Amino acid sequence: MLIKPRQLERIAILSVHTSPLHQPGTGDSGGMNVYISETAKRIAQRGIEVEIFTRATSQKDPDRIELAPGVTVRNIAAGPFEGLRKEDLPAQLCAVTAGVLRAEAAKREGFYDLLHSHYWLSGQVGWIAQERWGVPLVHTMHTMARVKNLNLAQGDTPEPSVREIGEEQVVEAADRLVANTEAEAQELINLYQADPARVRIVNPGVDLNTFKPGSKSDARHELGLKPNAVVLLFVGRIQPLKAPDVLIKAAAELIRHEPELRSRLVVPICGGPSGSGLAKPEALHTLATELGIIDNVRFEPPSNRANLVKWFQAADVCVIPSHNESFGLVALEAQACGTPVIAANVGGLPTAVRNNIGGLLVDGHNPHEWAHVLQKFIGDPELQKQLQLGALDHAAKFGWEATTEKLIEVYEEAVISAQERRQLA
């Protein structure tokens, strides 16, 4: 019998370890925050109310905050408000789950039509709430322990087995698993034995109204950059996984091969320490000093969107040397501003960056190879123009509207799947 999905009226989104209200680029805030915020706003614009549950990180956090019309963020008190690392959060999952369940218990039965959890910690809460509420669970991993452990940076800390087990449980429980790319879908299937029939690919997007081309000279003037500077931009959290050290080492190689670049080369590092990078917050500063290029490196705090757009517009290229990325939103944001991207050929980056179209992909993390590719880019104005045009064209295919449309299709599938499962039971 053909089952029609019931009209979605209200969904709950779980983002336990980081809030969409937090500034991306530091702590545990990054592309996932942007993803949740941008899709939630657009889901609400389609007439579906959204409530986002996250863990309160300050006593000053109100219980409820309106993120946008139709989107409410609910802060759940669980454990210490401040100073709790993401690695310590599993011990607080019972408290978070209790808070989420209490919030639902105060509503009428069937208040939420669906749960969408983000990252494995949220998936653990969603697994319990799904059974309690009798609603389907959609889950997005964003990153996975087994993938990260296969691509560890030198000296980085492996993900613990408790996370791997937790991810396995969420994969088993979810009605639908949303993968950012085909590569991530295959990782779910091959590394976690996910049922291919429950895996759906939905590419993340970019806000094309905010991230757009502008005057390079004006942006450089506002940011205090020389008109003739060669600007190699890094945007992201400062941690071994993101590999900003590869860019700094490659920049030193560039200057060694072309000493005349020293007076023009600028390497802005925009972001704050995160994850295992918190153990050595001065490591990049020390590295740049040891390599003799500290005067060429600008350490910038995490930027709001308006300032970030200026950095993209001012840069000659955005460099993403990560050891792994499930997608790489920064790559799309840079390209939407007309800035080519040179990125590691790993994870979802080959989807976010089409090689020789909007940027260049580099195999491995050898600084000498990165310096060679950067040197080729800097010395070829025609290549730069070609990639600038290709970057704009590529980014234009990734609006958040398309992402949201596909997500809602996945939600409707999950509702049907859950109804079928209940009928069989």
Helix-strand layout with pairing:
Elements: E1 10-14, H1 31-45, E2 49-55, E3 64-68, E4 71-76, H2 93-105, E5 114-118, H3 119-133, E6 137-140, H4 145-150, H5 161-173, E7 176-179, H6 182-192, E8 199-201, H7 216-223, E9 230-235, H8 244-257, E10 265-270, H9 283-290, E11 297-300, H10 305-314, E12 317-320, H11 329-336, E13 341-344, H12 349-352, E14 359-362, H13 367-378, H14 381-395, H15 400-424
Parallel strand pairs: 1-2, 1-5, 2-4, 5-6, 6-7, 7-8, 9-10, 9-12, 10-11, 12-13, 13-14
Antiparallel strand pairs: 3-4
Quick take:
By secondary structure, the chain is α/β, with parallel strands linked by helices. The protein has helices at residues 31-45, 93-105, 119-133, 145-150, 161-173, 182-192, 216-223, 244-257, 283-290, 305-314, 329-336, 349-352, 367-378, 381-395, 400-424; strands spanning 10-14, 49-55, 64-68, 71-76, 114-118, 137-140, 176-179, 199-201, 230-235, 265-270, 297-300, 317-320, 341-344, 359-362.
Describe the structure.
This protein is α/β, with parallel strands linked by helices and 425 residues long. The protein folds into 2 domains: 10-205 and 400-424, Rossmann fold, CATH 3.40.50.2000; 216-395, Rossmann fold (3-Layer(aba) Sandwich). It is built from 15 helices and 14 strands. The strands form 2 sheets. Strands 3-4-2-1-5-6-7-8 form an 8-stranded mixed sheet, sandwiched between helices. The protein has a 6-stranded parallel sheet with strand order 11-10-9-12-13-14, sandwiched between helices. Strand 1 (10-14), helix 1 and strand 2 (49-55) form a beta-alpha-beta unit. The model has no long low-confidence stretch (mean pLDDT 91).
